[in-house]
Amino acid sequence: MINKREDTMTEREFWQFLEKSWEKGRAAQMTGVVDSSDPEMQAAAKYIEKHSLLPADYQNIPEGIITAMSGLLFSEKVRRRTKEAVLMILAHQQSKRVLATLEKYSKDPDRRLKVFSQLALNECEMWNT
């Protein structure tokens, strides 16, 4: 599944991994409705909604897979939808290495992921305190 020449993962490999992970179930979640025209509130609502992407065993994803998917954040060719899913998974990892990756990405995120990436960083900081 992961490119053996490098510690990387293609966008397609990421979605194959995630779909396979969902076969074991998805993480429990709570959802709500945000009725606001404020773009930041809308982005926050989208972030909460994207928790539905978390596989049930998100805390047990091997470090090599986490490292490989992290690289997708820094590619301009990767779709926003994929980056949102990667950010969501990374946000829930107890790892100083992942926290450093999110800090790096949040300094210069894709324009449309600015709020999303900051929320992911904040959540990861919570898991790593």
Describe this entry's structure for a reader:
The chain has one domain (11-22, 38-127). It is 53% helix and 0% strand. The chain has 129 residues and is mostly helical.
The gist of it:
Helix content is 53%, strand content 0%. It is an all-alpha fold and 129 residues long.
Which helices and strands appear, and what pairs or packs with what?
Blueprint: H1 11-22, H2 39-49, H3 63-70, H4 80-91, H5 96-107, H6 114-127
Helix pairs in contact: 2-6, 4-6, 5-6
What are the secondary-structure elements, in order, as H or E? HHHHHH
> First CA to last CA: what distance?
32 Å
Gyration radius, rounded = 14 Å
Name the average pLDDT. 89
Q: Quick one: how many beta strands?
A: 0
The main pleated sheet reads as: none
Number of helices: 6
Shape: globular
Q: Regions with pLDDT < 50 over 5+ consecutive residues?
A: 1-5
Beta-strand portion reads: under 5%
Total tally of structural domains = 1
Structural class call reads mainly alpha
Residue share in helices?
40-55%
